[in-house]
Amino acid sequence: MRQNSEVRLQRFSMSTLTHLLTTSGQIWNARNKQLQNQSKTMTPLFGIQSFSHTSVCSVCCVMLNLFCREMCLASRELPVKHLNCHYLKNIEYGAEDITVLRDGLAFLSTGLKIFNMPSFSDEPGKMYVMDMLHPRPTPVQLQIKGELDLSSFNPHGISAYVDEADDSVYLFVVNHPQQKSQVEIFHFVPENTLVHLKTITHPLLHSVNDVVAVGVESFYATNHQAFANDVLSAATTLLGFSWCDVIYYSPNEVRAAADGILSPNGINISPDKRYIYVSNIMGHAINVYERKEEEQLQYLKAVAVGSLCDNIEVDHRTGDLWLGCHPNGKKLVMFDPEDPPGSEVIRIKNIHSDQPVVSQEYADNGHVLMASTVAAPYEGKLLIGTVFHKALCCNLK
């Protein structure tokens, strides 16, 4: 099954690249035409008059060098920096997102299948729970009840919300059945049950990557693409167009809370609920926003991290940000088991100060852990999840 998956991925990657370059050429031609209509003497973009189907191959290297190598950190090699870790039992096909409650209860989303990423299992995605206070935490599969099609369940980003009125726990899960985008809301019933309450879809929630819950039925969500079309969105990202946004959803209104972002991915909230953090993955930075009236987000700053950081977890005691990152985006997309994508965990201390401290806490070249996406700390332990590989539990002390 692994060899078949790799062959399918290679064929798909070449097809995607061709479509990407062709679409990029169409965007380029349209922009040049617009410029020429504005002024007959205006110089075309970079002096290139137009792209045609026959010129796609000849401009391939130019396009990749201009828009991909630096953005994808394609030449970056990562020295190993390990912790005392062990693999989590029962997690074989990725734990793309992990979140931990204050009482040590951790939720994991597993089995994600997403555009242009390897997948080594045909089974639907699953949700797990584990107790971080246990001497050797072990993930236990959650039983999902309610009217949800589990055969197409494809979980991505997750967020937990605890209702202070009665301590009820609600789990928000981004779901991609048939590669669509929707958000599922569950009620967690101890010890191992999720009761499905609601499926949320909306035209503005067209390519949701992650969510952060701010109420029993309200949340912020990142759209990691400018359009629902994968190829067109990839082209706009490679061309550097910051056209993506963060959407605020409540039963009463749905609207953009922040926009002008190149590639928003993970999202989370500060312990005091005042600030929202968004990973601009292709911009190699974490954007900091302040929540304002009517749930609008005011941009404050961006903190450079030097890596392609995916999900964000926040230490509930210190407020430190922990990031699961991809050190080399090219290795992730053009998957080669002989030269696998690495994993990296980055920590940001004092993010609201004038001099935030950015440090690397874990690094691997892909031979222990491939394609890390999340790093969730809790009381001296650290959980590291991945897109399609395994997951680690590490000791920080």
Automatic annotation (TrEMBL):
Family the entry assigns: Belongs to the paraoxonase family.
Sequence positions that bind Ca(2+): 96-97, 158, 209-210, 265, 310-311
InterPro entries: 6-blade_b-propeller_TolB-like, Arylesterase, Serum_paraoxonase/arylesterase
Cysteine pairings via disulfide bonds: 85-394
Manner of cofactor binding, per the entry note: Binds 2 calcium ions per subunit.
Gene Ontology molecular function: any one: metal ion binding
SUPFAM superfamilies reported for this sequence: Calcium-dependent phosphotriesterase (SSF63829)
E.C. number(s) listed in UniProt: 3.1.1.2
Residues annotated as the enzyme's active site: 156 (proton acceptor)
Record keywords, A-Z: Calcium, Disulfide bond, Glycoprotein, Hydrolase, Metal-binding, Signal
Name of the top EC class for this enzyme: hydrolase
Cofactor dependency: Ca(2+)
Protein name: Paraoxonase
Reactions listed under catalytic activity: a phenyl acetate + H2O = a phenol + acetate + H(+)
